[in-house]
Amino acid sequence: MNFLHAPARASAVLAIVVGTVVLLSGCAPGGPAVDASGATPAAVAPSASPTPTPTPDAGGPDAIAAVPDVPRADAGLGAATAAPTVPPTRVEVPELGIDVSVAEEGVDADGALALSSDPSIASWYRWGPSPWSAAGATVIASHVDSLDYGIGQFARLASAPVGTTISVTAADGRVAGFTVQQVELLSKTQIDWNGVFDRTGTPRLVLVTCGGEFDYDTGHYLSNVIVTAVPIA
Amino acid sequence: MRKILISGLAAGALIAVSAALPAAAADGDASLSVLHAVPGVTVDVYVDGALTLDDFTPGTLAGPLALPAGTYSVAITASDAADASAPVIGPIDLNLAAGGNYTAVAHLDPAGTPTATLYTNDTATIAAGQGKLTVRHDAAAPAVDVLAGGTPVITNLSNPAESVLTLPAGTVSASVAATGTTDPVIGPADVVVAEGTNTIVYAWGSLADGNLALAVQTIGGLHSNPDGVPAGNAGLVATNQPADSAPVWIGAAVLLMLGSAVAAVAVRRQNAAKAGR
Asked: In chain B, what residues touch A71 (CB-CB under 8 Å)?
């Protein structure tokens, strides 16, 4: 008896995903938006027969209503291959004159986001979401300045007005548009990096650079400028 | 919640499941997945006497279920059984600790007899850029080596043992050979080791029957994140300026040049050098 037909299975999986997102997005800005009520678990439960007529001989211990709706998946190798993340290759903020290329980066030896020394090459955190992912924060960062290259284009982010348009392009030419929702200058010691790099919650773009006061002894800024932008509907 | 599950209210069970994973972080519940790795037989799975998985087919992964910590009795029967009284495997007791992540696997022992093993899944946080590859021997076969790109990375793995590797995220060309040999009995096959994910590969089936295969379970969300973005080292846009050097006008000059589309890189470098000292 194949009580869990394919659409129900897909919905059940969706329900798990939604549940997971809700669970993990506690520190995400805009978290409440992921409460996707459209995936109400009850909606995908095997429904009782439309007619209440009992069918004792057909059901028995295998009766649909008696069995929990446990999601199942083919465990075969490659059966659940996830679509690869589409890397961004360019970020433009026309109103601020920003136009930088984007490289894929992981972490450096210190566990921080690896950055190109050239401020005109921004770094996308390759293990996190991209603008074409279903959820989470796309993080792209670039140096605000450099002893070799001078002031970087991302220096202009600190004064970006809310509503500024940002476009992110992929290698295949697809473009994702965002608008600036907030610009923050936060002390590096107070930043919730797990929140910045959050892979769950509503899709968003987070541009990061440095700013604020400079420690002339260590050669580092004391704060980060963090720009959060939301997709253009 | 346990009562809901066992009484078989489908909607309630699904709510429990959807609130649980990937790592059962919710209020101490354990997370249980079930893998059917006995070739050729469709079964029913009973938990504490209640039918929980109906017509469960080989190569299928069910769950995860969020369950309160405790001991659960699991019996696996033929798919036409009327109840759990005549199991083909079990009943076995599963002791699930609060917050634990488990997979119960119905599989063959080395001699080809159906059995079941409860594995505890590694859900520890993984360094950025890395993934875990867990290999479990659940096949009716002697001890094996696991080769990645033809090189043994796990040796002498016996049913039902497991081995866990931490690897850079990527795709591994994996094969399984009798221990001490390199002639594959399974594979080579591409196994994706996703970043921040524990990818669990099960070798199952029977060598004698020629139906060895791989099954895969993934547990995601184990990633860690960069702990900073050190995105500046010159102080050119600092809101503070050193009192004894680098006159304020240097910063102003730099800002002025920024406004000009023709600001020459060479000049900026010159200013940068001055401001840097």
From this structure: 14, 17, 62-63
